[in-house]
Amino acid sequence: MTSSSPYDPPAEPDRVSAPPGRPPRLDFDRPPAATGLPRPVGPSLRRMRRRRRRTVLLLVALLAVAGAVAGLTELVHRRADPPAGNPRPANGFGAGARVEPGPYPTGASGSFAAADGRSPIRGYDGPLRRYRVAVEQGAGQDVDVFAATVDEVLGDRRSWIGSDELRVQRVAEEAAADFTIYLATPATSERMCAEGGLTTERYTSCRIPGRVIINLARWMESVPDYGAPLEVYRTYVINHEVGHEFGEEHQACPGPGAPAPVMQQQTYGLDGCVANAWPYVDGSRYSGEPVDGI
Fold first, then answer.
1. Which residues pair with 136 in a beta bridge?
2. Which of 55, 138, 196, 225 has its CA 20 to 30 A from that of 260?
3. Is the pTM of this model over 0.85?
4. Mutual angle of helices 143-154 and 230-245, in 10-degree steps
5. Sign of the CA dihedral 44, 47, 51, 56?
6. Where is the DUF3152 domain (predicted)?
7. At 195, is the secondary structure helix, strand, or coil?
8. For residue 92, which phi and psi values (nearest 5 degrees)?
9. Do residues 231 and 94 lie in contact, with contact meaning Cβ atoms separated by under 8 Å?
């Protein structure tokens, strides 16, 4: 009996007989004959198999990491991209934008800096109402950013220009403005509102003739249980207080689960309605029953 060593060279492939005058060919397609004995495995073959297994495992791990990176990249792009048909404004506010509140002063200088320049005229027909935008100095807010946010809100088709009976434009000159929109610290806003006979307890925003006064605390924090992102509240408070300047009065919630009218006092609670920042919804004026109040 002959013994087979793991180190013996493999047998030559079977040769297939060829017609006379032709060299025999090697038949690589035919499987080796079964012997019923286990095939010997030498150390070199074992090492080769181990290397192959490590290579396969490494490729699987690399593919898993690549998939995770691709998924994270897609998630970042989805968060960064605004919804279709609703481009993100350059100032970072507006629908689709994520706004993180930060610390703010409760009182500051009491003097204001106004935004420069003019916006395009927004609207389709009707009289032109010009507004000026100013931010209290020392409030920690950029007047140009605030002005751009106001411009975006009031220039939206869902805002008051949706009536097709009103146009708006921001101006820099106080003499050219019909009214001014202020962003003021709680202490300053309370004092300014009190000049018009209104009590805000440093909490709410207000409007007195020719002045729309946005409370910085509400601008930075919204209100408890509002149920919508901060940028929605910011849009609401601009439209609400400017609505007063345009002659609108307070309105009530139409019913549980319904959108809150923009002239509802949403700062004090939604009364069963859900937050809504716009006077025009689906192209139509949306309102509730009038109520008494400030």
1. 112
2. 196
3. no
4. 70
5. positive
6. 102-271
7. coil
8. 90, -5
9. yes
In tens, the pLDDT along 49-90 reads: 666 666 656 665 666 655 554 544 443 333 333 333 333 333
Reported as a single tens digit per residue, the pLDDT across 88-140 is: 333 333 333 344 456 777 877 889 999 999 999 999 999 999 999 999 999 99
Q: Which residue has the tokens 């025999």?
A: 24
**How large is the C-alpha radius of gyration of the chain?**
37
Q: What ranges do the domains of the chain cover? A: 112-224+236-248
Residue carrying structure tokens 């610390």: 103
Run of H or E including 47: helix 43-80
pLDDT in tens, 184-224: 999 999 999 999 999 999 999 999 999 999 999 999 999 99
Residue 107 pairs in a beta bridge with none
∠ CA 155-143-262, nearest 5°, is: 40
Query: Which tokens go with 124?
Result: 């389709």
Q: Is 131 helix (H, G, I), strand (E, B) or coil?
A: strand
Q: Are strands 167-170 and 179-184 parallel, antiparallel or unpaired?
A: unpaired
Contact indicator for 275, 229 with CB cutoff of 8 Å: no
